[in-house]
Specification:
The protein is 63% helix and 4% strand. By secondary structure, it is mainly α. The longest helix has 15 residues.
């Protein structure tokens, strides 16, 4: 039962399976673009290798669920930014790619 409750509290990616390759590429590139980060810098932020970011952007690999969770958290942080443009773009990406489970089971 505890596992079910934890599952219900975890934010979910809009699609139940992994995001499609073009969608992942767009998400990663757009996030890097709005933050002004290189692939190397973004990789360091997520704790992955540069080659991993490169593979995500080129459609050779999908981010793991943990990496998607980290990306979602970055977008949430950016959506609270004092910079209006950064706040707007990050909120658009959050709404486009991620959704919260509506159940607030304790």
């Amino acid at each position: 039962m505890a596992r079910l409750i934890l599952f219900l509290r975890v934010p979910m990616v809009k699609k139940t399976t992994a995001l499609g390759q073009p969608e992942v590429r767009h998400l990663i590139r757009e996030l890097r673009h709005i933050t002004g980060l290189s692939q190397e810098q973004f990789a360091a932020m997520l704790g992955v290798a540069f080659s991993t970011i490169n593979r995500w952007e080129n459609g050779h690999m999908q981010p793991s669920p943990l990496a998607l969770k980290q990306i979602q958290m970055i977008l949430k942080d950016l959506s609270g930014s004092p910079a209006a443009k950064l706040q707007e773009r990050s909120q658009i990406l959050l709404n486009q790619y991620f959704t919260e489970m509506e159940s607030d089971v304790q």
